[in-house]
Amino acid sequence: MAAAAFYDLDGTLVRTNLVHAFAFSARNQQGILRSITKTAATMLSVPLFLATDFFNRRLFNDIFFIRYKGESEDRLRALSDELFDTVLRPSIFPGAYELIDKSRQLGLRQVLVTGALDLTVGPLAKHLKIDDYVTNRLEFVDGYATGRLLPPMMASATKASWMRIYAEKEKLNLSDCYGYSDSMSDLPMLSVVGHPTAVNPDIRLRNTAMQHDWPILDLR
Amino acid sequence: MRERAPKVLRGPVPRNKEDDQVVYIDGDSAPRILFSGEDLLLEDLPIGTRVIYPKPPIEGLANPGAAIRYALNHPLEADPLYAQLAPGMRVTIAVDDISVPLPPMATPDIRQTIIEILLEMLDANGVDDVHIIVATCLHRRMTEPEMRRMVGPKIHEAFYPDRYYCNDVEDPDGFVHLGTTEHKEVVNIHRRAVESDLVIYVNINFVPMDGGHKSVTIGLGDYEVTRPHHEPTTMRSSGYMDPKHSTMNTKIERQGAIVQQHLNVFHIETVLNNRMFAGPTAFLSKNEDEFTEIDRLKFEAMRWSLGKLPAGAKRKLFQAIPSQYQLIAVHAGKTEPVHAKTLVRCFEQYAVHVRGQADILICGVPFISPYNVNSILNPILVQTMGLGYFHNMFRGKPVLKKGGVMILTHPVYDEFDHVQHPSYIEFFNRILPETRDAMVMHRKYEEEFAKNPSYIEMYRRGNAYHGVHPFNMWYWGEHGRQHVGKVIVAGAQNAHVPKILGWERAESLSEAIAMAKSAVGPSPEITMMHHPPIVMADME
User: Fold this and answer.
1) Cα atoms in the 13 Å half-sphere on the side-chain side of A76
2) What is the pTM of this model?
3) Which positions in chain B touch A215 (Cβ < 8 Å)?
4) How far apart are CA B124 and CA B282, in angstroms?
5) DSSP string, B28-41
């Protein structure tokens, strides 16, 4: 039976996170004043983002994605290539290429399971030669973001349940699959595969990985 | 320890005069000290038990530097090193890793002494394209402080990390295929070594399995090079501490012949004495019957202190005490003649003449093995020490009779080092509960572990042993597993680890001996190998 390697993205394969992507968009608003205002607001919100992310990823998503409200879809799409070139590509951990390469050599399908936005992930997935990916998607009405996400919201348990469905659909044996993440919020995702690995883990995931005897990788 | 006056060895005149290092327990004998991980046990052994002690250290060479220079200038079946050097040459110096000697020796490490002399000579001859490669193969990458300690700060600062690094078997462009033997044994060697005009290998021959063609062929080889012999059939077929009769050695020599066709290797081999314990811990090498009052006090103080410390602190304490080994031989030149001379000296230090096999073999398992320097001796490595190293410390035939009982003293705690031994954890918890059959695990699971991307990354970027290493360590015990009828681990602090390893458990050594007697009969021949330091039985 076939198997796959499921990767979280932010903090696992790349140094950046959702806030970096948003900050890039904030910096590139139409008009300098608007750019400054949005950038300053983003920076001031960083402690709030950190706190909510630490305690509850879903709450973080609710608070964070509302910042996209009013953004034009066209503009976000237009910026995505530049975002990849200037922000994401330089942030890919050196070990990420090799991890994916070794994993591909094993015949594993390469799948990204990330809470990042589809607009930002596409070019990166192509660059890393990822076979499949699932992301969060902004809701747009009349070409403008509403600040809400389309369901299902990719975070915590939703990632795991998406992986189960995906495995069933693609006839993958989850016991033979590999999972990689840096964050405690991805514990469900790591728990459904036979080969979980903590990558550049935060302290909580590191402790959990130690308790469960999972490998701990540092790709930085 | 019992209160009694210090005495010299006496008691029943040895029934068979074997060697001064072979002692028989009588009614007046002192209890014996055994390692049990990081603890020291003091045990009364049954009367008639034969205790085999290591030989006292051969006196070290008075001037190691001069001896090394002499060896370089008077090599065996090769031109003197200086005569082989020319300006503009590309030279690779390869060195054994931290797995030898044990524990790491007091600085300056003998490798530092040799490399300093080599670099001086290379510099004097206009050779400046020099790399130093630690021949780690599937062993873990050494940490920077460990590498610094091994060669000294001066060399480290000049060469690390660009010109002083560890062999990385997972480097996709790092190896050159040199050929395949007539038995289909692959020979892939580190690219830098292959592309060098001269490879100088600096070896420490800690056990007779080390050195010779194994140094370059395995140390600078990749996983494929190890596969023909690091597998159960080879390991099952013979012991591996007696190179003349070792199937593994035969295979490595065939691979080595190919290496020799392609590489210009100048081999430097050293032999150290077995002065593992010196100063305040010197009593650990002594016959307990010859303890002085001071020795007794030191032992009691040490045992009391160890009893007060948690396991981790004891481990750190033991590993922090460097060994005081001294150089007793150094030879240089062509691999085979150099190694032949090395082995003679090696056996001179380690081999003790022993007559007759035992029904029960007792070994105290210490805190360290070649594979857990600055780390934990996990259950797989306890197995390697018992059924691998201790069982194989013989020439001729094993100390234990076929089907006999091996008693090991160790707590066999269920502890693993997540940094150094990640794949061991999965091996122990997933593979061993399913099968202990080396053939089955070799066929079914070895490749999966060898190619696990996480383990590869942890090996390359961290300080982890290669994913396949726990398999090798299990195979290491294969000859012992086929030979020994039963293993009893005395002092095991849990029931599940011995069960997973396929061993029996006893609370104490006396209980273990009673259990062993029920398997081999009421009047068994009992032998205790007084490791460490290293002792090998030269079986008659």
Assistant:
1) 22
2) 0.90
3) 418, 422-423, 454-455, 458
4) 42
5) TPPPEEEEETTEEE
